């Protein structure tokens, strides 16, 4: 089945290429696979190409990659058995699902290795070997080569002197490649018993390594051990009459007489913290893949000066939280489990993306702040950023440099108290700036759970004990501030808590018809929309508080579900869904992320689901949504999943105050362009009429927010002809008008 998505929408991928799973090569180019993305680098021209889910790859984890020079095709193998064949001449991708669809246990389908011989690729899997024909792009026979035809994990195959050799978990096995029925297990004989990780042909030698790292040579009858590696090997491949054997801290390069030419340690590549995953060569250049820092290269002659050749990206794919401003995007990678437990604590830095690319601030520069789970940019000063650590306090970053960590010693923040006096654990999560620039902060598992860092540097602290039964057991998600300056806090045990600083009053909505009408007391995300309504995402569904100002007069706030008609039945929108994030775009649509069902985009009142993006109908790399944030200027929606971040260049930008900034793009519309024409910089509820040069109306609409799209058809009936088209824009009250032109070339 050919890949490609039904929606002709503009997506962009922001993937990490740092965890190299496998490499392959042609005579000029290295091909590298990271967790779920690919890149290639041409050594002669230095051009780098990348491919992610946006181009049609799967978000699943890649386990093997192979480039066939003869067929100009790249084959990607996945842990779940999926195969994708990329035609390098035109970039098209073919998804091959035969292995996934086999009636086998799902944990046996991992693809370990590809070996090409005579136009066939032998695919080593955790159940056996499958033959794939590069001409027809069809699978041939499957070989179950264990005893009595049992499933057996095959790690690698090699072709040598007319035989196919397989390194398996139960011996090295071989069969005559000309045998007509290799799918008969009795054709496969055991050469050596034991558990083997690799086998490879190197000119006149055949080499195999067992799982404890003992290298063996074949003496035409059996494999004889000749060297014990200090660690088990993770990769072995022959290239240009050399053999590359990789262990996590070194690469050994042997010539075809099995004499060690060179040993490269991880300290020579970078430092002793990295783990090497694979190595190969293209001409005179050695490429070394690592688990943490991507791909490094060095020429054989340069005596070991390595440079990083990885495309830039975030430090990791599992972005837990982000913040976006008109000019920059910030990400953090710390996390906690569904019970707000940050252990095992993690040590990751912070990343920033802007027009000049990615800046990754390493862990060594963040004052040992562990498990950073939220990040916020000061809306009045983009140079000031705060990252919340769910263990160490609040990290301040100025001009892209971390310069202070607020904790229990130097600020109003407090450590949890329930674990004894010597246990320090400062759990900071949700943050929000108010209109005057004060930063409001949630501090979990203490009595005074609401903090504020005022613009003058003074700290304020508010007790939650009057509104929450057991504040020292409570954890908080995010905090939002409404137009009336009321602070709303998502909690895990007490629903949503509202706090009015002016009157020093607390209110809450929690589980139960008379207590706030939430489906459960565990709230994970809250957002305020353009109509001053509070949208509440719980671990069991969605609720809306339609009138926030009822905070002042109603003794009990009450949230309601959104009831939609589906198949003539009244249903609750997002019934029982675990909601992880809610973002409101410039047209007041709601973008709602879930823990396992992807992203829903619903109309301002929630009555219409306009998009539901999942891994199966969009470039979303995973259905686990960690966070969603929207660039208010461009309308770009950033979606962070546990397998990578992508953005949707939607059309919902914030409405403008007047029509002075209206622009049309693209203009002119060239024959190669297949997308829509966008009219941006609009005021809300503007009337837009598009006519041909004679004045015949071809399109009319009213804007919601700052942008509209025209599909260049006459009311959807047919594509309009080449020519100049007039765009008449008028405000709802008729008080302001603008005229624009767009040129269409067919």
TrEMBL record:
InterPro entries on file: PorZ_N (IPR048954), Secre_tail (IPR026444), WD40/YVTN_repeat-like_dom_sf (IPR015943)
**Keyword set includes Signal:** yes
Q: Which domain of life is it from?
A: Bacteria
Keywords in alphabetical order: Signal
Q: Which Pfam families match?
A: PorZ_N_b_propeller
Domain PorZ N-terminal beta-propeller: residue ranges:
30-189
Question: What SUPFAM superfamilies has UniProt attached to this entry?
Answer: NHL repeat
Task: Tell me what this protein is called.
Answer: PorZ N-terminal beta-propeller domain-containing protein
């Amino acid at each position: 089945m050919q890949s490609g998505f039904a929606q002709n929408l503009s997506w962009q991928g922001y993937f990490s290429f740092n965890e190299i799973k496998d490499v392959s090569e042609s005579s000029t180019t290295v091909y590298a696979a990271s967790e779920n993305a690919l890149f290639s680098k041409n050594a002669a021209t230095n051009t780098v190409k990348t491919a992610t889910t946006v181009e049609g790859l799967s978000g699943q984890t890649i386990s093997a990659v192979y480039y066939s020079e003869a067929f100009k095709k790249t084959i990607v193998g996945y842990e779940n058995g999926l195969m994708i064949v990329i035609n390098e001449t035109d970039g098209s991708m073919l998804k091959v699902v035969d292995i996934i669809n086999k009636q086998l246990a799902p944990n046996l389908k991992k693809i370990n290795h590809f070996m090409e011989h005579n136009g066939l690729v032998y695919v080593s899997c955790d159940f056996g070997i499958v033959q794939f024909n590069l001409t027809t792009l069809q699978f041939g026979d499957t070989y179950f080569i264990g005893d009595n035809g049992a499933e057996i994990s095959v790690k690698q195959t090699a072709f040598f002197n007319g035989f196919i050799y397989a390194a398996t978990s139960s011996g090295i096995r071989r069969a005559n490649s000309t045998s007509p029925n290799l799918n008969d297990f009795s054709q496969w004989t055991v050469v050596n018993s034991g558990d083997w990780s690799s086998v490879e042909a190197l000119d006149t030698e055949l080499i195999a390594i067992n799982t404890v790292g003992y290298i063996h040579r074949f003496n035409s009858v059996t494999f004889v051990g000749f060297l014990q590696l200090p660690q088990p090997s993770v990769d072995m491949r022959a290239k240009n009459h050399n053999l590359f054997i990789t262990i996590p801290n070194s690469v050994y390069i042997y010539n075809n007489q099995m004499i060690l030419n060179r040993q490269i340690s991880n300290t020579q590549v970078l430092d002793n913290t990295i783990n090497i995953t694979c190595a190969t060569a293209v001409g005179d250049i050695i490429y070394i893949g690592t688990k943490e820092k991507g791909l490094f290269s060095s020429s054989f002659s340069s005596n070991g000066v390595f440079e990083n050749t990885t495309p830039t990206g975030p430090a990791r794919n599992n972005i837990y939280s982000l913040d976006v401003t008109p000019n920059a995007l910030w990400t953090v990678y710390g996390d906690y489990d569904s019970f707000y437990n940050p252990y095992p604590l993690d040590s990751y830095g912070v990343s920033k993306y802007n027009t000049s690319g990615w800046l990754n601030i390493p862990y060594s520069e963040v004052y040992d702040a562990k498990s950073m789970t939220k990040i916020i940019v000061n809306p009045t000063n983009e140079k000031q950023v705060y990252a919340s650590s769910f263990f160490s306090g609040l990290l301040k970053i100025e001009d892209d440099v971390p310069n202070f960590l607020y904790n229990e010693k130097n600020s109003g923040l407090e450590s949890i108290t329930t674990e004894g006096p010597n246990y320090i654990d400062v759990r900071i999560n949700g943050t929000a700036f108010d209109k005057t620039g004060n930063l409001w902060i949630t501090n979990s598992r203490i009595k005074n759970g609401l903090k504020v860092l005022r613009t003058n540097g003074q700290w304020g602290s508010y007790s939650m004990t009057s509104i929450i039964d057991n504040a020292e057991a409570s954890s908080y998600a995010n905090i939002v501030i409404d137009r009336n300056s009321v602070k709303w806090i998502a909690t895990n045990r007490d629903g949503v808590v509202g706090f009015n600083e002016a009157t020093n009053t607390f209110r809450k909505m929690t589980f139960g018809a008379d207590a706030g009408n939430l489906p459960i007391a565990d709230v994970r995300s809250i957002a305020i929309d353009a109509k001053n309504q509070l949208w509440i995402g719980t671990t069991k569904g969605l609720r809306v508080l339609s009138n926030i100002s009822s905070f002042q007069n109603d003794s009990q706030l009450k949230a309601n579900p959104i009831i939609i008609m589906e198949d003539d039945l009244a249903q609750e929108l997002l019934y029982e869904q675990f909601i992880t994030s809610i973002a409101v775009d410039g047209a007041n649509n709601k973008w709602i992320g879930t823990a396992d069902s992807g992203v829903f985009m619903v109309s301002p009142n929630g009555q219409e689901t306009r998009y539901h993006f999942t891994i199966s109908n969009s470039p979303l790399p995973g259905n686990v949504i960690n966070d969603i944030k929207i660039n208010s200027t461009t309308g770009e929606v950033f979606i962070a999943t546990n397998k990578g971040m992508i953005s949707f260049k939607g059309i919902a930008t914030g409405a403008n105050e007047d029509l002075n900034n209206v622009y049309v793009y693209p203009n002119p519309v060239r024959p190669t362009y297949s997308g829509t024409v966008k009219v941006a910089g609009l005021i809300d509820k503007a009337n837009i009429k598009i006519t041909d040069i004679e004045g015949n109306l071809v399109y009319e609409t009213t804007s919601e927010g700052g942008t509209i799209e025209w599909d260049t058809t006459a009311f959807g009936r047919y594509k309009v002809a080449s020519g100049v088209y007039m765009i008449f824009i008028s405000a709802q009250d008729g008080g302001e008008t603008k005229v624009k032109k767009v040129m269409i070339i067919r």
